[in-house]
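Quick one, tokens below:
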């Protein structure tokens, strides 16, 4: 996809952690996967999707049922076990891919897997810096962001037509937590670190660029 990747503050390969990041589509998945071997947490719906389900199976993804809150503790145990085996695990706590306007509020419970596994949380911010020689603007947004009701085939075709993309991954300050910590405080700290370094798509009306309110989230 003619992607030039810039990686800042990359940790040593020996470090193990739960990586949490903002998420704008399948391109940032490939950006992270190209940095170092990692396993990704994704939804059961993705496993049920033709073609994409096969790709996630081959990639060793960890599946969670976002439609059922009753199973979330069992699914967290699966993530904990994977972390304890020495794998780096990627969790997108926004629980969806976005349109590049802002970092959405974080889901909280699954982030506590790091504390139970005895590893830190590694916040990471992903930014698109340059597309076809221009800034990341509304003109190019739907070529790199896969969100809402955009069909996968459409998003893939748009991305494939790009001549060049410069993406940036920055590893931020790690968060060390314990099982006794308030999960809301931990999630808010990770969100604050990532949101403070996120560069929204350019061209939005001024009033739409204000940070989203942190909404109460029972998970």
């Amino acid at each position: 996809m003619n992607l030039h990747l810039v990686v800042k503050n990359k940790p040593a390969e020996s470090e193990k952690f739960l990586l949490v990041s903002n998420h704008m589509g399948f391109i940032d998945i490939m950006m992270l996967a190209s940095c170092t071997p990692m396993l990704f947490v994704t939804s059961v719906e993705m496993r049920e999707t033709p073609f994409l389900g096969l790709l996630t199976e081959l990639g060793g993804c960890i599946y969670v049922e976002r439609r059922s809150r009753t199973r979330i503790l069992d699914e967290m145990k699966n993530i904990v076990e994977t972390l304890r085996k020495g794998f780096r695990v990627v969790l997108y706590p926004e629980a969806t891919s976005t349109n590049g306007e802002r970092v959405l509020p974080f889901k909280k419970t699954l982030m506590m897997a790091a504390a139970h596994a005895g590893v830190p949380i590694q916040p990471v911010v992903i930014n698109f810096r340059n597309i076809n020689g221009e800034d990341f603007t509304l003109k190019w947004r739907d070529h790199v962001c896969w969100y809402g009701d955009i069909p996968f085939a459409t998003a893939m075709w748009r991305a494939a037509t790009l001549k060049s993309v410069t993406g940036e991954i920055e590893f931020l300050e790690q968060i060390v937590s314990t099982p006794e910590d308030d999960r809301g405080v931990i999630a808010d700290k990770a969100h604050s670190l990532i949101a403070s370094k996120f560069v929204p798509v350019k061209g939005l009306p001024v009033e739409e660029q204000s940070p989203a309110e942190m909404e109460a989230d029972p998970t």
